[in-house]
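How a chain folds remains the central question behind the approach discussed here. No coordinates are needed to read the tokens, only the vocabulary itself. For completeness, the protein is quoted in full, as a sequence line and a line of structure tokens:
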Amino acid sequence: MKNIKTLVLLLCVVLSGAMSSCYDDLSSLDIKPIPGVAIDTTGVSKLAVYQFEHLVVQPKLDIAGLSESNLSYKWRINVQPDDTVYQVIGEEKNLDYEIRFKPNVAGKHHQLYYTVTDNSTGLEYIMAWPVVVRNNIGEGLVIAETSDGINTDLSHIMHSSVTSDYSGESVKYGVYSAINGRKIDGLVKQMRFTKVFGADVLYAITDNSTVRINTLDYTSGGMNGELFFSGTGSAKPQALGGIVQGDIFIADGKLTGTYLGAARKIGLPFDFPFVVPDDVALNGFNTNPPVRINFYDEVNGHFVYMPTIQQFGDRKMHKAPAVTDGAFNPASLPGKVNMAAGANSNGDFLHLLKDKSTGAFELYVMDGGGNNYPSPIPPAPKAVYDLSTAPDIENATQFVLLDNQRVMYYATSSKIYAVLYATDTPVYEERYTVPAGEEITTLQIYQQADYPFRSESWDPPYISTNNRQLIMSTYGTEGKVYILPMINTGVGNIDASKIKTFSGFKRITAIATQN
């Protein structure tokens, strides 16, 4: 054991000598440090930006005597989090770039690389930051627009008049194509915001397709057969709508009612011998009305009502019974065409019909029926208003039935008129004329996406502008969105001094609200 210890000690002495003999004394050499670039990142260890806003980075550089004219810059970011594919997004000293990537899920981020190159030596100085993209597409207006008359893109508006608890203004153009790399095939004619199994989504329909968009990040959520339990979808979508615990989809003359809050796909249509039109009156008020659905069957020439779509209760479609002493006979009213339909807060059903032969417009009013479990009392006719003398109504393309006032709006290509029907004889008033060179393409009453489903006892109140402004779009050299505040309840006046306009769109085909 003693000999082993002695041997180890000798080895340590030898190694120590060898190491000391390899050391060079550099204390007398002339040292000239190479000038370089230092990037100060104090307080900027990571970056965050909202989707469709600009990522602005202004790094502090110490160039240590280098000539700035010899420096070049490059900013790169990976297209997907954790991906190795990068794209160049800037070649200036400072970065100012609009971020259109979809919002990051928790724990994921993009990587931003900043390279400063000394062109005289070829040396590169690199700094990297993690970048988190946040979602800021919230409550507001979804704008469907087309640049070619064939495909549709979606843009988005946020403003205090259409967005709760928001004081700014944000317009994001081409949201759908930026996220998905393509537009929607066809022209979107209607959109509707709802929830599918707890997830916020937007449905959009064209003449031959149905599309679902996830509004968290505006990625595609499927289309056509992928959205239906039947797996086939529909060749000819007509309309979207909603009632309490019910999402309505109308296509091929059939109505489908599915509660998407508890289902991931749209169910099968009801099979009844009636032809369902585009315009259906839906009572969505949270008051348990005896009849939820009412429409005019153009093919068979009479009204049809459906009490409910739920498993409990009467979920059949019924032909309206004949009435001989009422304002009209809902069981026999041939030769009409649906122009608009709705329900008011009193439970009445409203139907604007046009006569195929004479072209006359008439507004039909029916009550909401009565409770008589298990089969409710059918809606009964209350009144019919002859609108044949309404100015230029034969050229109207847009119709809006208010649910809290006895007022109807209609719009030609350039003017908006109000029909006041509080008395037996309607009164007509011109309310707005668009600027020269513009054409009205859409018109609707502003209602938050979940109106009128909230419970006044439990839910927060609606925004103060709900049901108090019109949303109009026009097209001339560009597409525009107008917010037209309404004043004087029951008269339909528009406060011209407070009109808000958003521009920069293509031709607008539809507008929807999003929560």
